[in-house]
Amino acid sequence: MRPVLYVLSFMLVMGLAFWAYRENYATQHQLKDMGKLQDEIASLREALTLQRAEWAYLNRPERLRDLATANFDRLGLLPLEAAQFGAAAEVTYPVASPAPGETGEVAPEGLSEDLPAITDPVEVSGALAPETQAAKPGDKEFP
Amino acid sequence: MIRTPLRPLARILSARQKGENPDSIERENLRLRHEAIRDKSRLRSEGRLLFLGLGFLAAFSTIGARMGLLAATEPMEPRAAATGAEITAQRADITDRNGRILATNMQTYALYAQPKDMVDPVRVSKELAAIFPELDAATLERRLTDGRSFLWIRKVMSPEQMQKVHEIGDPGLLFGPREMRLYPNGTLAAHVLGGASFGAEGVQSAEVIGTAGIEKALDARLRDPAQAGTPLQLSLDLTLQASIEELLGTGMNMLNAKGAAAILMDVHTGEILTLASLPAFDPNDRPNPLVKGDAGDSPLFNRAVQGVYELGSTFKIFTVANAMQLGLVTPETMIDANAPMRVGRFTIKEFQNKNYGPKLSVENIIVKSSNVGTANLAMLVGAERQAAFMQAIGLFDATPVELVEAPGAKPIVPKKWPDITVMTTAYGHGIAASPMHLAAAYATIANGGVKVTPTLLRGGVPQNGPRILSQQVATDAIRMLRGVVQHGTATLADVPGYMVAGKTGTAEKPNKAGGYDTDKVVNTFASMFPANDPKYVLVVTLDEPVETTGDTPRRTAGWTAVPVAAEIIRRVAPLLGLRPQVEPAPLDGLTAVSN
């Protein structure tokens, strides 16, 4: 009985040694991989910082202003004005077509129950009419 | 164990037969037994001591071996830990209140030379001078050949320049990694940001230190490695800053002004949304300070914070508010305003030698900007209470704004307070403060009389400062300032929908001879809007403006600073999300002043 026990425990030790050997190399391999990944993360972070800086540079107000001026024909961007403030109630929504059930009629072809999409610009003017923005008599002397 | 009897019967009997004392046998046996016990326990104790000794030896040698190992091994980065952003940036970014970048870092390279490894210094000098225009080929060649072993050539360079240096292909030219500060918005908010430069420099890295503005004032916070990953968020708003700088620049050019400054401040939180000072500079390429002449002429000069001027009539509201707070007058009290007024050998006159007298209500003193009326009011208040009020509202100390320039810009305050000083300080002469002081003081009035401390850091919480004016006095003061815009000296500032309230100030600049220059003025308009519930304070200051569209050149604030401020409010109020209001009927107690 005893010799069998000795042989078994010897084999167990050998097995464990082999396992430890493999684990050791696997760990080292993983650490090396991680080092590479971390280098990559660092360089990506660096690139990200640079791209953020470039984004900020390309979006600097001075450049955007120049671009808005240069592309005025297409974009028609103007500074926001006080007269452009309005209430939601002042928006002229298209009138909803009556639901088919209420009138007993069938909705005409091409008109679904949903509101049609708004295609034209919606005219909104706030409580402050644009006319009040006009120059007052005193302003005339000053350009 | 076999126990030896102490009195073995056989020996006792034989001893008795021999007539010996059997007790001696017992004693002998007892002695032997005790000796055996002693030997045994000694052995055991010795064994224990030895074991303990070995245990200690093992423990100490383990610790010693570990310490030796730790001391002898090369240091290594902890590879198993996750890296954060702090490893890549040595200085925190600066952003505006919406997170848009104002200052960040960029990886670049410095160029240095090791002339001993250099193959052809003459050619290298020529080629480097061609790449970097500021280098001189002859000087560089002399330096490369005078026997030194190390030479810095460039602190930073662009990737294109680096590529060209690579193409020279000389082994004596080497690159060291550098982190440089970048301000992507150029001159925008330049005076707030200041600038940065390199401190201690090594081949592998260099220290980036702030040289001015908030970069220097908060250098420790920006360099703190624990906070390097968190950007420093300022209260500035990039959009507003850009709009105001543009409008201010246009106004400055149209009015031929030497310089201009504007401050837009939230009256509840004290956050400065815009701090503009023109002319500006590029913090990426910060110019050198002037070696001679007036430092105020340099673009580095921050007029909004460092520009300590006599701000003129804008101070009148403080005198009036103080008098109302002390209960001496109400807005309707009639005050002697008969001009000109003689005090000893001095004469106090009104603008263009007018006379608003003989009596003027307190409200109309502000609306008409009466020097004489304010002077008389100041005499009612008295020197001590006047000085105490100005101290309380922050006009005696440097502003606590987070800029390195701020503590140096202390207001110029009279040392003695004779009657004439009390009178002139009441309308803003003989006392000089910066536009920032004025903005903070107006914000205090606009905030219902609770003191507001200006800050450049995003906080977003209303300040809970000491109360300086009662709510009623503050409301009355704001109503008077609204009157100035409705039918006083600042009618051009009446932006529809935003109920601007404010006060103009025109101060002549002191000259070197000790007098005042009539054609060199500082024009200021301090305003708040909307008047029914003030949210923002705007101070616009123009240095030496002149309005020339009329027959005679006009230099009063009403014709210079006010229209610029009005244009700014018209543009930024919608950007601030302020909905225009249709003004209600005149507030109670508001009386028409024009006959």
From TrEMBL, chain A:
Protein name: Cell division protein FtsL
Keywords from the UniProt entry: Cell cycle, Cell division
An example Gene Ontology biological process: cell division
Keyword Cell division found: yes
Region spans: Disordered: 96-143
TrEMBL record, chain B:
Keyword Transmembrane helix: yes
Domain of life where this protein originates: Bacteria
Presence of the UniProt keyword Chloroplast in the record: no
Primary subcellular site in the record, as a coarse category: membrane
SUPFAM superfamilies: beta-lactamase/transpeptidase-like, Penicillin binding protein dimerisation domain
Record-linked InterPro entries: Beta-lactam/transpept, Beta-lactam/transpept-like, PBP_dimer, PBP_dimer_sf, PCN-bd_Tpept
GO molecular function, a single term: penicillin binding
GO biological process, one term: cell wall organization
UniProt domain Penicillin-binding protein dimerisation: residue ranges: 87-223
Transmembrane segments: 49-69
Keywords on record: Carboxypeptidase, Hydrolase, Membrane, Protease, Transmembrane, Transmembrane helix
One GO cellular component term noted in the UniProt record for this chain: plasma membrane
Subcellular location: Membrane
Domain Penicillin-binding protein transpeptidase: 261-554
Name this polypeptide is given: Penicillin-binding protein 2
